[in-house]
Request: fold
Amino acid sequence: MTDEIILSVRNINKEFPGTKALTDVNFKLRKGEVHAIIGENGAGKSTLMNIISGIHQKDSGCICLNNQEIDIRNPREAQKLGIGIVHQELSLCPDLTVAENIFIKKINLSRNFFIKYSELYEKSKKLLNSFGTNIDVTQKVKKLTVSQKQLVEIARTLTTNAEIIIFDEPTASLTDSESENLFDIINNLKSKNISIIYITHKLEEVFGLCDRVTVLRDGYYIDTYNVSKINKDILVKKMIGRDISNLYPDKSTKNDGIIFKVSELKRKDKFKDIEFELRRGEILGFAGLVGAGRTELAKTVCGLSKKNSGKIYLEGKKIDISNYRDAIENGIVYLTEDRKDEGLFLNKSIKENISAFNLKKISSRILIDQKKEKKQTFNYINELDIRAYSISQLVKNLSGGNQQKVLISKLLSVKPKILFMDEPTKGIDIGAKAEIHNLLRRLANEGLGIVLISSELPEIIGMCDRVIIMNENDICGEVSEKDINESEIMYYCTGLNDVQ
Reply:
C-alpha cells in the first residue's frame, strides 16, 4: 500500500423517494490498500458503492480517479475506468454455464462469431481452482448452491482487469474455507497494487484483512481509521452511535415442559431416525458445519421437503404435516436463510409482504380490509422498529436488516407456536442483530418454542438454552448450560466424538 490516492469522493449526496441516503459523504481510497466500509444497514454503504460503480447517479458532489474528476453514468463506463464490483445480490444468468457467466462481458465485447469453448472452460477452471473449488464450469449456474454462485460472481469480476474492485459482503454465503481462499486472493490482488473496497458486517474481517476502515452512519460520513490503531468497541460505538453491551440477552431459567417433539423422522438419502424435543419458552440451537443437514432437517419438519416417515407432536398431540400449509395451520413457521429468493416478495410493499401469510385475518369476505391491513402493518413496524418512510415502500428498497424484520413480521402474523429460524441474522449489522436477538428471547419468554439454526458459533453460544449438534445428516451430540462453548460444540461438529 502507498499513500497515493487513486479514488476520492467529496460531498456526495443522494436522495431516493422519501429518504436521504447520503449527505455530504467523503471517502478516499489509496492505491494497493484494502479499505473497509462499515455501518449499520441503511448507513449508505451500498448506495455509495453503487454510485462509484455507475449503478446509481449522484445528486451532487465530486468523484475523482487518479486526480481527474469523472462522471460515471453507467456500469459499463465504470468498467472502462477500471472499477469492478462483486455484488451482494447475485447478478448471474441462471441458464448460462459457469464459464459463460464468468466471461460474459468479454464474450459480449468480442467480434468473433464463434466461441472457443475449450479455451473458455480451461480459463474458467483455472480461475475457480484458485479459490480451492472444483465447480464444474460446463454446468448451468441455476444448478449451483448459493456459495458456489457467489464464487462465480467473484471470478467474473476478476476477469475485467480492474484497478479498483468493490466487494459487497462477499463472504455472506461462503464457507470458512472458501472465505480463507478469498482472503488469499484479495491479498494477492493487493500485492499487485490493486485497490480493494470491502463492505462487511463482520468486524473480524476488518481486523484480519483490511488496512483502513471508514464508518458511515445514517447516510453520513463519520470517520476513517487505520485498523492497527483502533479496536472493536470503538468501531461498534462509531457505527451505531450507542453502546451495545447486551448483544445477547439473558438466557431462560424456565422449563415449562415439552411443546414440540419429532420422532423417527426419515428422508431418503438425507437422514433417518431423527429425534429431538423442544421445550416451551426454550431457544434450541442447531449447530454444525456447512452441509451437516440442519436446513434440510428444518425444511422437512416444516413440510417444505417431503419426509418418508416420522412422527411430529405439538403440545402432546400427534399432527400431520404433509406440506408447509399444514405446518402454518398448526402454528409452525420457518424463516428461510435466503430471504430474497425464498422469503420475501421484493417487488411488493411492506404491508403486502406482512399480510401474505394470513390474508384471512385482514379480509372481509372476498376483499382485503385496508384498515385492518394498515393497523397490522403499523403494529409490526412499531414492535420490530422497521425503518421505512411508508408502509407502501417496496421491500427491495429496504436495508437488509429491515428486510429481515419484515420477513419475521410476516411469520409472526399467523401467531405461531413454534419458530424455526434459519440463519436469522445473516448479512445484517450488529445493531439489527442485537434487536433480533432481544426479540427472539422476548418471544421465547412469552411461551413460543424457538429452533435457532446458525453458522455463527458466538450466536449459538450467546442465544441458546440447549444446543443439538449435527454432522453428516445425523444428530451427533447435545450440550446445555455451561457445556455450551466453542470447544465442546466443535468437538461434535468435526466428528471427533466418533474417534475411539
Remarks:
- The chain has two domains: 5-240, 258-498.
- The chain has a mean pLDDT of 88.
